[in-house]
Design a protein that fits this description.
The chain is built from eight helices and 15 strands. By secondary structure, the chain is an alpha/beta fold. The strands form two sheets. A nine-stranded mixed beta sheet has the order 3-4-5-2-6-1-7-8-9, with helices on both faces. Strands 10, 11, 12, 13, 14 and 15 form a six-stranded mixed beta sheet that branches. The longest helix is centred in the middle third of the chain and has 14 residues. The chain is globular, with a radius of gyration of 19 Å. GO terms for molecular function: hydrolase activity; nucleotide binding.
Length: 279
């Protein structure tokens, strides 16, 4: 009896705000293969409504044959549910959380029925210098870079040439033999689908302790007050993201990574703020 081929698994890693969600969106919208994307939650992936065929429980079926699954409590359970599907995907892409070591996530790709194709780790050109030197999270950043089989510097259009050069130097010192590209999400999604298989190397697994808190009822009179509120977060808060309603009823998408704060208009429903903090 011929054994069914194992499904290749790619892990997308990178520190908070590196652009993983943007890449996931591009993978789903431009797919030419049946791809199963596993994300931490649907709320962060703004899938084009015209692509959605059906949604049930923790799975969204897309019209192009792809599926998007939310991890929930168990990544292993999600992968087993994928194997139970009548029509198997040709590739599985797993989004690691922004504070996870991709090497630890990749261990699940060795479940029978799958094989690990590689880890693609994104590095934010605008935040990498600050993150890599941070005494609290610098180790997490280094472990993510060292777990990569392909490194991609993102947001290069928002950084100066000198900063990009410094980022290249830091990343290359951490992973001197790992391919490093400066690319857009569109180009990267195509590139990573053609990532060659590799022999896994042993990567030590070390965890920094993080906790997640959701502020369900956040309100502000205007953007200025909201900005001031975000600025006053303690330094232990390494990431904040969510949708907040202002006093006039307008909603704002809020993202804070380190000292960088972004506030933009949105029509999406309020979610509150999710904070990721060092314990």
């Amino acid at each position: 009896m011929t054994q069914a081929p194992r499904i290749p698994v790619l892990v997308i890693g990178g520190y908070l705000g590196a652009g993983k969600t943007t890449l996931i969106n591009n993978v789903l919208s431009s797919a030419t293969q049946r791809i199963a994307v596993v994300v931490n939650d649907f709320g962060s992936v703004n899938i084009d409504a015209s692509l959605i065929k059906e949604k049930h429980n923790d799975t969204i079926e897309l019209t192009n044959g792809c599926i998007c699954c939310a991890v929930g409590e168990s990544l292993a359970d999600v992968l087993f549910s994928i194997l139970d599907r009548t029509e198997l995907p040709e590739v599985v892409v797993i989004e690691a959380s922004g504070v996870a070591n991709p090497a630890a996530v990749a261990a699940f790709a060795h479940i029978e029925g799958f094989h690990h194709l590689g880890n693609v780790v994104l590095v934010d050109a605008t935040q990498a210098l600050e993150t890599s030197k941070d005494p609290l999270v610098g180790r997490t950043f280094a472990l993510q870079v060292q777990a990569a089989h392909l490194l991609a510097i993102t947001k290069s259009d928002e950084a100066t040439d000198s900063v990009i050069s410094e980022v290249r130097s830091i990343v290359s010192s951490l992973a001197p033999s790992t391919p490093l590209v400066l690319t857009t999400s569109a180009t990267l999604s195509s590139l990573m689908m053609n990532l060659a298989p590799h022999a896994d190397s042993a990567v030590a697994e070390t965890h920094t302790e993080f906790s997640t808190t959701t502020l369900s009822h956040v309100s502000a009179q205007d953007e200025q007050q909201l900005f001031a509120f975000l600025q006053n977060f303690p330094s232990s808060v390494v990431r904040a993201k969510g949708i907040v309603e202002l006093a006039n009823g307008n909603r704002r998408l809020v993202q804070k990574v380190g000292s960088t704060i972004s506030i933009s208009q949105t029509e999406l429903p309020t979610t509150g703020l999710v904070l990721i903090s060092l314990k």
